[in-house]
Amino acid sequence: MKKKHFVGAVRPYDLHNPRVRVGYALMTAICVVIALVAIMPVLWVLLSGFKELKEFNRGVKGTDNRYYLQLLPASFSLDGYLDTWNQMKYVRYYLNSLAVVAGSVVCAVLFNGLLAYGISRLKPRGWKVVWALIMGTLMVPATTSIVPLFINITRLGLGGSFLPLWMSMGASAFYVVLFKNFYDAMPGSLLEAARLDGCDHWQLFFRIVLPLSMPINIVIVIYAVNAAWSDFLLPYLVLGGTKLETVMVRLFTYRTSDRVNNMDIIRAIVFSIIPPIVLFIAFQRQITQNVISAGIKG
Length: 298
Prior knowledge:
Radius of gyration: 25 Å
Number of domains: 2
Helix content: over 70%
Structural class: mainly alpha
CATH class of the largest domain: Mainly Alpha
Strand content: under 5%
């Protein structure tokens, strides 16, 4: 059986044209430059964490007794990273962030998926009004609602717990739109067959729709993990000053301490950005496929 060869916008025989060859080389160079610009800040922070404070501020002393700044550190010792890890007690804050992420993922998939399923498939009376309100909230910045949200959290006595962070992730208009677009493309005959077999609406969602929605579920999980891990303002307002502080909140309080220097802050930043980077590298294919499919549907 012959293997199928997939080609992109520029096919191999197109490169015989000098204009296409020049354009292709120029486009490749631009992509390389963009990639370097995107990677350099992360690479600089990572490599700077291996440096000592004097080396970071003044550079490395050359043979002419002058100091020169350089990207690579003089040595790749992990002692500085280990000292910062132990000083910040990152294990506890990592566990707090993981708890926030786990609850946020469950709420993001469950509650947003249920709302999108009701709008896409059940379509009760007034669903168009609800859908219009959801689309309208996409144009409202999230920071504008932080004050009334915090007031309601305080009045309900939910401060100092993870529950407000979980519930806020379960009420995302962006996730609802993604779920609805996926459910609209789901074959209606499959759902009708499940109804004929005696499934009610709850069984239909949890036994049929949710398992068949793994592609969009994975995308929502990726977005929710990144959002929950990197969120600062709401966790700071809800969890600030408690033992449940997340990594981002701890990073802010650690930065304002008088006992730390620039190197400690840089190493702490490295620890805070490692999980999102690893997640993006592991699931970059799902992210790009969702972006492409969303553009095609649009």
